[in-house]
Write a structure and sequence with these properties.
Strand order of the largest sheet: 1-2-5
Structural class: alpha/beta
Order of helices and strands: EHEHHHEEHEEEEE
Shape: globular
Number of helices: 5
Radius of gyration: 22 Å
Number of strands: 9
Distance between the termini: 54 Å
Length: 230
């Protein structure tokens, strides 16, 4: 732009992780007095407080990895959920440790959970979550100009998000009940599943003793209660 003698300023749109990268880069440039020549920054559905993958889905994928000999589940568990990026971003994380035993396969998986990721730098009263999560968001929020919380300041900022801004589970459903076809009569009032509710179920064939094999996932239970996840 300088070579073309242009006076235009940049408009930067950062979807999802692009919102994280562009936020850090723009704030870093302001902190170090590097002109970014940007007039507008748009963050699109970027996890500025952390990301969510339902714990039921994480749990079921780990069950399939342990018992179903699924290459796809193994890849997702080890290379996606197990990646450094997932550990840095996910507010709720499924964690697998292995207990040694004296017979083959010489270990048993032990499943636990890292819940409610948050940091003091985000404005909360304590640090919680995976150490990678705390380290990442501390670095993100401590970047930039003083008191900026890691956001660029010398430009206009717009954020666009999916989901509810009012902590409500109600929404207008454009699809027919239980399906993926659009409802010709228009959207109807609906609600996301409540705590502990089943969110997914596939039934298979009955085994030799008549038990029907199913794959199921559930929402997290309410605070202080117990419930299976998958």
């Amino acid at each position: 732009m300088a070579q073309n003698n242009s006076t235009e300023q940049l408009v930067i749109v950062g979807p999802i992780m692009g919102g994280q990268i562009s936020r850090y880069a723009l704030a870093y440039m302001e902190k170090h007095n590097i002109p970014h020549n940007t007039r507008l920054w748009v963050s699109v559905d970027s996890p500025h407080l952390g990301a969510n993958i339902p714990m039921g889905a994480q749990s079921l994928l780990n069950v399939l990895n342990d018992f179903a000999d699924s290459a796809e589940a193994q890849d997702f568990v080890e290379n996606q959920l197990g990646s450094a990026a997932a550990r840095q971003q996910l507010i709720e994380q499924h964690k697998v440790d292995y207990i040694p035993i004296p017979i083959p396969p010489f270990y048993l998986p032990f499943h636990s959970y890292i819940l409610d990721g948050k940091t003091v730098s985000q404005g909360f009263s304590q640090d919680k979550g995976h150490p990678f999560f705390i380290q990442y968001y501390d670095a993100l929020y401590n970047n930039g100009l003083p008191n900026s919380e890691g956001y660029p300041q010398n430009l206009r900022k717009i954020a666009i998000v999916n989901g509810s801004l009012t902590n409500s589970m109600d929404f207008q459903n454009p699809f027919v009940s239980g399906g993926t076809d659009f409802n010709s009569n228009g959207p109807t009032p609906s609600s996301y599943r409540s705590h502990g509710a089943q969110t997914f179920k596939i039934e298979g064939d009955a085994n030799v003793i008549g038990h029907i094999v199913t794959l199921e996932t559930y929402n997290l239970p309410s605070m202080g209660n117990n419930h299976k996840l998958s």
